[in-house]
């Protein structure tokens, strides 16, 4: 297991979800750079530190015994990693106050350490929310690996907080140090909204949503081919995003019982608002989760999924494969997993390793809609 050594602690840290022979670390040089910088500046036990987008808890676990730590991110998997890494390093679960990105952390904070997220709209929303949450003399530092640090991130820091000074690169990581100025409150451009004609919906999309400005082309290819049933099927929209697949299915299947789950808190927030707008008080379970890991075995008749092919900046089919495994475990015998995916990803062959039968329902030049039967 990789060890993170900094002046604050020596920690063994795991990513979430964990996979055997994990090729990637739960921390990188940007985490080390931020922690070393903070140590050089000096903190006390009563120093209030806000961490934004601490992927797997490397920053929070390092600081948990040294100051008052609040951590906020949009990843439920990140929260699970934080919880697990606190426990495995002998740290108390309540040593860190975790706030989902769908809520606002309450200051005042003396320090804010930011891991620059892949989605700059999330960073923008987080910076807007910092107004009124910084203590006098508060210091704000953002860090990232140079290859993942767009110029626009510094522009956002300067727009909402104050002048930015970029550090020298260390181990291919860089810090952006902010001289906090009184910029005044800013109006957030989030959530955004867009309309669909079929089904007729207006969809709310909070800042960290994938394809926030319009329906993604994979889902667009999937929607006309959603199955229709007259009975009370138990259905999950796995990786639900703004909830459009689950909502569209529910509108055409009035007896169905829906569960919508996503690892993004802002996705869940969006899906909850969109469900209420489209279906009123019709019952549904809409929650943040590690996919269907918490779903009882043999408890679903149908799973709908437009699987992701990346986790933060890491591209691959690991999460999709895990979702397929979770769906198989949660489905009853004879239950079905319906997915849409890029042709080149070869999901047909992967699903055949798990399911009794796999057939192509529809296809476009870029996407295929597949049905896998347990």
Automatic annotation (TrEMBL):
CDD domains per the UniProt record, alphabetical: AdoMet_MTases
Record domain Methyltransferase small: where: 201-371
Keywords per UniProt: Cytoplasm, Methyltransferase, rRNA processing, S-adenosyl-L-methionine, Transferase
Substrates-to-products reaction catalysed: guanosine(1835) in 23S rRNA + S-adenosyl-L-methionine = N(2)-methylguanosine(1835) in 23S rRNA + S-adenosyl-L-homocysteine + H(+)
EC number: 2.1.1.174
Gene3D superfamilies the UniProt entry points to: Vaccinia Virus protein VP39
Locations listed in the record: Cytoplasm
PROSITE patterns: N6_MTASE
Domain of life: Bacteria
GO function terms (MF aspect): methyltransferase activity
GO biological processes: methylation
Domain (RlmG N-terminal) ranges: 1-180
Enzyme's top EC category: transferase
Keyword Amino-acid biosynthesis: no
Keyword Transferase: yes
Main location: cytoplasm
Similarity field: Belongs to the methyltransferase superfamily. RlmG family.
HAMAP family: 23SrRNA_methyltr_G (MF_01859)
Function, as annotated: Specifically methylates the guanine in position 1835 (m2G1835) of 23S rRNA.
Protein name (Swiss-Prot/TrEMBL): Ribosomal RNA large subunit methyltransferase G
Organism the protein comes from: Ectopseudomonas khazarica
Name of the gene this protein is made from: rlmG
């Amino acid at each position: 297991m990789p060890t993170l050594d900094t002046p604050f602690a020596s920690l063994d840290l795991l990513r979430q979800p964990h996979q055997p022979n994990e090729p990637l670390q739960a921390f990188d040089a940007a985490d080390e750079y931020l922690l070393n910088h903070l140590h050089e500046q000096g903190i006390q036990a009563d120093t209030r530190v806000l961490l934004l987008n601490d992927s797997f808890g490397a920053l929070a676990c390092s600081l948990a015994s040294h100051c008052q730590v609040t951590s906020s991110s949009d990843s439920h998997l990140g929260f699970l990693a934080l919880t697990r890494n606190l426990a495995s390093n002998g740290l108390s679960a309540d040593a860190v106050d975790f706030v989902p990105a769908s809520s606002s952390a309450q200051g005042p904070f003396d320090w804010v350490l930011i891991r620059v997220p892949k989605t700059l709209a999330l960073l923008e929303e987080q910076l807007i929310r910092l107004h009124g949450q910084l203590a006098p003399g508060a210091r704000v530092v953002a860090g990232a690996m140079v290859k993942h640090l767009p110029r626009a991130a510094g522009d956002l820091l300067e727009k909402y907080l104050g002048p930015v000074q970029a550090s020298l690169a260390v181990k291919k990581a860089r810090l952006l140090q902010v001289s906090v100025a009184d910029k005044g409150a800013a109006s957030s451009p989030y959530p955004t909204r867009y309309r669909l004609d079929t089904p007729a919906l207006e969809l709310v999309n909070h800042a960290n949503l994938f394809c926030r400005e319009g329906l993604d082309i994979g889902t667009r290819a999937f929607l006309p081919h959603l199955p229709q049933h007259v009975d009370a099927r138990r259905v999950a929209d796995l990786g639900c995003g703004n909830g459009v697949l689950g909502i569209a299915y529910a509108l055409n299947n009035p007896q169905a019982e829906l569960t919508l789950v996503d690892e993004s808190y802002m996705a869940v927030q969006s899906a909850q608002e969109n469900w209420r707008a489209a279906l009123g008080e019709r019952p549904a379970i809409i929650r943040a989760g590690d996919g269907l890991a918490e779903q009882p075995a043999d408890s679903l008749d149908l799973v709908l999924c437009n699987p992701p092919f990346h986790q933060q900046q890491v591209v691959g089919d690991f999460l999709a494969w895990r979702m397929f495994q979770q769906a198989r475990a949660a489905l009853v015998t004879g239950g079905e997993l319906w997915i849409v995916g890029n042709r080149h990803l070869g999901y047909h062959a992967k699903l055949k390793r798990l399911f009794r039968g796999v057939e192509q329902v529809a296809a476009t030049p870029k996407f295929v809609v597949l049905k896998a039967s347990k």
